[in-house]
Each structure stands twice: as structure tokens, then as C-alpha cells.
Amino acid sequence: MIPFLDLKPGEDAADVRAAIERVVRRGWFVLGPELERFEQDFASACGAAHAIGVGTGTDALAIALRALGIGPGDEVITSPLSAAYSALAIMMVGARPVFADIDPVRLTMDPRATAAAVTSRTRALMPVHLYGQAADMPSLMEVARAHNLAVVEDCCQAHMATCNGTLVGSFGEMAAYSFYPTKNLAALGDGGAITTNDPALTARARRLRNGGQTDRYHHVEFGMNSRLDEIQAAVLSARMKWLPKWTADRRRLAAAYRATLESAPVVVPPEQDAGHVYHLFPVLSATRDALQEHLRLRGVETLIHYPVPIPRQPALAAENPAQCPAADRVSAEVLSLPLHPGLTARTVDEVAAALHAFHAAV
What we know:
The chain is α/β, with parallel strands linked by helices. It is built from twelve helices and 13 strands. Helix 3 (57-67) crosses helix 7 and helix 9 (243-260) runs parallel beside helix 12. It is globular, with a radius of gyration of 20 Å. It starts with 12 loop residues before the first helix and ends with a helix.
């Protein structure tokens, strides 16, 4: 069996254990020196002045929106093809998610559809850098500037990806990251972070993550309890030094997939930017379900990211979302192949061989 992913620490295991033991010996578990160190290191790696560690990537998005003053009566335009949590974060602050259909090649928000979705109630754009590939940020920033909109980048699948040579998260006012265990930079549980260059937004985000407190027991506004704990911060600091190697591994494996799948019975979405970090490796097939079953029978585990576009989720029905036909088509055809730093080139060949065999089977 070729598993889709292996979440156990591998070459970083000794570093992870040492990080956990350090926190346990110190006996400080929330809002301590490990978090401060990680926030400084992560901000530097992201090319940002500040980072704020929070409990989840979803909370990172919601706190960023709240820090920008977005709430009830406002609209935020985002992608219909993503984990639903991006839209749910908008709903968490009382705003309405509006969906701009995707570019069918890049698979991220189409700037023209985004511009068409702007109304008098639109306050922000939330582009999603999907599967590790950056959205078309130069074009989306033109839309934002034309309509005086804030931009919160969803970088949850794109740690240190670049767009035209510029790090994602550097374009908008704020950016959100997830450290869920499947991510390129992963905690051993939930975790997230916000980055920004604005000191006032930083101060408000830090306050909001900690119950709206200015200091202990003094709550000046309604806030959340969403703090990246010391153990997760220490683990993430330990793994930061591995991330460049892991990103290079992902790119090498993705290149091997592209070379071996050239004549396969699937469509491989093109790499739109050399800064792609390959959080996932999706392919498209009009007979996706049959292909997935074919691969399962040959011992290859695959997943679907994402089988239901967000506007068609029952949880979004009350928001009266516009339908997005390009996202509908991709959701019906997309299939993610195994890709992670622990994978070998031989395994890529085995997956590709199983996929090529589907052509003969059909």
C-alpha cells in the first residue's frame, strides 16, 4: 500500500523530541518564550515585520478580518475551491462570503470574476493560495486598489510560496497560515499564525487572540481564546530549519510526476509560478471516481481536494451564494496523488505506472 501521507516525525524526529522536552522541563506552556521565538523566526521567513501565533488557521483568518474592522453587513470575496474553513472564517466575524469563480487553469480566484463580484458592501478580498500555488496576486491587487479593498491572503497551503518572486503574504494587509499536521510546515496538532507589517494591526490581533485583554483580567473588547501553545511553537521552530529542504523535496517529486505523467489519461494542472511549494499534487480526470477506485485496487491511496465546492455546502445555503461553474467542474474531476517529503522517486514511478494502467483499463 502506498499511503497518501505519513504524519509521524521522520528525519526531524530528534529535533521534535528535544523541542517538546525543553518545554516540559521549563514548565511554561502558554504565551511564553517558545512562542515569542517562533513568531520572530516565522515573521522573518515570511518577509513580514510581525507574526502572531494563534490556535488554528481558521482563527488566523477570522482574527485578521476582525483586526481590519470587518464584521456584520460587510462582504468578503473569496474562492469557491478551498477547504470550507476559509468561508466559515468570514461568517465567524458576521460578514458574508461572496465567491468569485476560479481561473480553470490556475485553479485560484479569477481576477475578472473577482472584479465582477464587487458591490458597495465589499470590504475585502481573501484570495486562497491553493495546493501550494500562488493566486494571481498582481491582478488581484489591482482589483483591490481600484475599489479600496483590504486583502487578507489565505496562505494556509502555501508556506513560503512566491508569486513573481515575491513571497505570498507580502501583498495584502494581513496573511493567515495553518500548521495543521498535513501542512508543509506542520505542528503536532492544530495551530496557526497571522503575519502583517502594520504595528497597529499586530497589537489588535494579539489582543483579540487573548480574549481582548490589554493586560491580565482587563478586557477592552470581545476577543477569542486562540493561542498557539508553547509545545506547538517549539515543534514548529524545530521544523522551520527543515522546511527549505522539504520544499525542495516536494518540488523534485512534483517534477518527477510531471515527467512521468505526460502521456497519462489525466490533466496535470500547469505550474504557473516557479514559487509553487506543492502542498498537494492534484490531477484532473473526467472519470475521477473510477480512477480513484482503480488506484485503490492497485494499492495507491488518494484523496479529493475538494469534492464539494464551498458555495454548494449546506452550511452556506443561507448566504445565497452565486454558483461557480469552473469550481463545480474541478471539484468533480480533481484527485490528489501522494506527495510528501518522505516519498521516493521509485514510489512516484509506481504511482505513475498504476495511473497509466488506467488508460488500458478504460
